[in-house]
Amino acid sequence: MRTRAAVLYGMKQPRPYRETRPLHLEEVELEEPGWGEVLVEVQAAGLCHSDLSVIDGTRPRVMPMVLGHEAAGVVRRTGPGVTEFREGDRVVFSFVPACGRCRFCAVGRPALCERGNAANAAGCLLDGSCHFRRGDQRLHHHLGVSAFSRYTVAAQESLVKLEADVPPEVAALFGCAVLTGVGAVFNTARVQPGSSAAVFGLGGVGLSAVLGARAAGAHPVVAVDVVPEKLELARSLGAAFTVRADQEDAVQAVRDLTGGGADYVFECAGSERVLEQAYRATGRGGTTVTVGLPDPQRSVSLPAVTLVTEERTLKGSYMGSSVPRRDIPRYVAMYQAGLLPVDRLLSRVLDLEEINEAFDALAEGRVVRQVVRF
Known about the structure:
By secondary structure, the protein is α/β, with parallel strands linked by helices. It has helices spanning 17-20, 49-55, 103-106, 114-122, 168-171, 177-189, 204-215, 228-236, 250-257, 272-280, 305-309, 324-336, 355-363; strands at residues 2-8, 23-30, 37-47, 65-66, 70-78, 90-93, 132-134, 137-141, 151-155, 159-161, 197-200, 221-225, 241-244, 262-267, 282-290, 313-316, 346-350, 369-373.
């Protein structure tokens, strides 16, 4: 079949993207689903910094590639061997297809799935296949999803059934922003009620972490960013205090507001410099969780002795240390109960034709979450 998709042929195109247009909107061929695979009609796909990091070359991927990894849609066909899904099922995508058999899947850590992450690095599905073509040219999959296409084929391990009646543009956010940010709070940090928390970086993931910290009963929750509108949104979502990092010493401000440093600090900016700030803003006995994806060539410098003398913990969190088939339904239920007002993270809904301009807005920090609605 044919589908309209946004294809990236090469990384590191200069901005503004509205002029250089790194994403090409094209009619491409999509092969039928194979064993254990599902054809999904994508209804909504979010624009995430992980997509932007491929475009600007910060997170190198094999080219060419159909981008997009945060999405919701409807099952249209199933391949042989698919037992969990049928035509008409509403689904949310998970950007790490967990094989269920490797050592990490076996101990309940599917975000670290060996086969899933190897397939993602190779730009293919779990079985090594690629289903997108343009003529004789193979187009790679992005994180097993490739959501910037009206139709896509994914391994059944990349899908979570959505039972609740949630608008597609909201449901899409549970596949990355919410899964990652809220998961970092509940799964990685395991924030305790009554503890203090701070979040550095208020994109979709960071604001989801604010929502998660609030839902976990943390107080105070301190939100840190440089964009006034994002700080205002964070306060309306439950942050007790906000700190504008370009106008004051963010580390000292957090330490003052939390009585010597927060119990839990989340770095969601994807910057080694911000990670160092987040660590310094963490109190004695506290936990620093790094969620953002910095340039792989960057490193951090931390006072090593504090890990011992202050019993500090530094943890990484990939995909919110989540088990998607457990956590996505749980977070959707929390959204329905009013505990996670995820819909307020939506900055705007757009058409696929506006995608290059939308990545300009994301790169400039002017938006939280934009969603392509098919």
